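Lab channel / #folding
Pinned by the channel admin:
"Please post every new chain as: sequence first, then the structure tokens as a reply. Keep commentary short and put observations after the output so the thread stays searchable."

First post following the new format, from NK:
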Amino acid sequence: MEATAAELTSEVGTFLTALSVWAADALPRLIGALLLLIAGWWIAGRAESATAALLSRQSHIERTLCGVLASLVRYGILTLFAVAVLGQLGIQTTSIIAALGAVGLAIGLALQGTLSNIAAGMMLLWLRPFRVGDYIDTGAVAGTVKDVGLFACELESFDGVYQFVPNSELWNRRITNFTRRPTRMIDLAFSIGYGDDIATGKDVLLKLATADERTLSAPAPQLYVDQLGPYAVVLRLRVWARTDTYWPLSRDLVEKGKLALEAAGLSIPLPQRELHIRDESKKPAGADAG
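Reply from TO:
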């Protein structure tokens, strides 16, 4: 029994000695790793807040993009400190970084379409070719922008149809924004007969355009003879209006322009075709001889 007790005491002493040696070596590493982790968490949070505050003061950056960039800064700093913590604990970080790179590559290949939509969304939010409320046309889709997200945009067509469009489809196309500019030009063509007085027609249309308060005085309205058609003289009327009054003013000018020209005694000719009918039975005998 005494031998057994002596052996147990010896083993406990050996264990405590090994534990103290391990603690003397590992405890500073653990404390350093914990301090690094706490410092990284604090620095990442401060950096995220500072980045968000800085970007929010930039009027040309969308709020959605501000949050995304601030989150990227936070997680980037956390990743760097995580690698530093592993190194502090004596873990070889080279293989871990290589493994993370391989995993990231595999995930990137699997989510290639999703990542392209995210990249396109970030570019759309950064460059802002359109905003919420703008009416756009890409040739493939057209409508009023209701929401701009990282993955897709939501549009509503003029007839109330909802459209969910991936960002990559918008980024890779030519975008026409009809409401981006505060003013737009209205371009209309009116036809009068060749026998009508051109000066009267120009005077009637110009007075009609300038009398409407929705017509802008600068740039000034323009009216000129655009072309001499096969059956009519074409007068071209160009006026500028605010974007929000473009369509109402355009429709009114078309309707009132027709009525004003008719009230001034001018005609609005229609395409005509002359038919000449020849009676073969009345041809003199022997006309086709020879």
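NK: The longest helix spans residues 2-56.
TO: also worth noting, The chain is about 50% helix and 15% strand.
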